[in-house]
Amino acid sequence: MGHGTKLLRRGPRTTVAAVAVGALATAGVTLGPATAARAAVSCEVTYTGYQWGSGSGGFTASIAVKNTGDPVTGWTLTFTFPGSQRLTQGWSAQWTQTGARVTATSPAWGGPVGAGSSFFLGFNGTWTGSNPPPTDFAINGVPCTVNQVPDPSPSVTPVTTPSATPTPPPLRIVISPKSIVVPEGGTAGVQVTLSQRPPGNVIVGTGRVAGDTDLTASAPLTFTPENWDVPQTITVTAAQDGDTTDGSATFDSRSSQITGSSAVLWTAVERDDDIVR
């Protein structure tokens, strides 16, 4: 069992997004073993990152890929980190990094991606110095055209109010419970809501900031002004291993769409199945 104990200093958070739109005509993606024609592939990629730390730290990235071309079976998404970023773990794909080059391949359980359909994947990583977003997205080896989009964080205009006017409570992330037990080789979850209706969509990302690296959290959650009070689940998975130790990890859930400090810390403890109790 790995026990990563590096604490990441939380500092200014940034959200970056990029939309990659490219017509990848005759990209060499076959529709099936019985079809000789090649698919005309076109994609739209939205990349959003949530970072913490000052000078160095960690980040969570979510990637939404929309197929705007023909149906495809099997895909490979590639991009290059422009800085010193390192991939630590990912989900919903088979992830590798060689140098600054990152490759995500469709998982074994993934099926065909129909025209107009989307799929979602993401990863956690670390950075030192700066954390600029990748811009050279490619699908199945064919580069996509990349367009930057504005930061989705809502702008805040200072308003002067009389001192007698009460200040409304700040929007915050609500997590329950703050500590869970995860069986080794299994999963457990915490429930997440917002404290009040947000002005727009709020994406809550979660990363491990200390402790057992065998404990991993699921992908970011999206809350809207309509579902802000409907509980959503962050699932923690405990990898199977051969030791006899109950591990634990501290997780940090936060959103760059919430003004001020939005971070909520919570813990997960692995219940080792090799211990005779």
How would you describe this protein?
The protein has strands at 3-4, 15-24, 41-53, 56-67, 76-80, 86-91, 94-98, 101-105, 118-128, 138-139, 142-143, 145-148, 173-176, 179-183, 187-194, 202-212, 215-217, 221-223, 232-238, 248-254, 264-271. It has no helices and 21 strands. Residues 1-36 and 149-158 have low confidence and may be disordered. The protein is 0% helix and 48% strand. Strands 1, 14, 16, 18, 20 and 21 form a six-stranded mixed sheet that branches. A six-stranded antiparallel sheet has the order 6-9-4-3-2-12, with no helix packed on it. A hairpin with a 2-residue loop joins β3 and β4. The chain has 277 residues and is an all-beta fold.
Topology (elements, then pairings):
Layout: E1 3-4, E2 15-24, E3 41-53, E4 56-67, E5 76-80, E6 86-91, E7 94-98, E8 101-105, E9 118-128, E10 138-139, E11 142-143, E12 145-148, E13 173-176, E14 179-183, E15 187-194, E16 202-212, E17 215-217, E18 221-223, E19 232-238, E20 248-254, E21 264-271
Parallel strand pairs: 14-21
Antiparallel strand pairs: 1-16, 2-3, 2-12, 3-4, 4-9, 5-8, 5-10, 6-9, 7-8, 10-11, 13-15, 15-19, 16-18, 16-20, 17-19, 20-21
Task: Give a nutshell description of this structure.
The model is unreliable at 1-36 and 149-158 (pLDDT under 50).
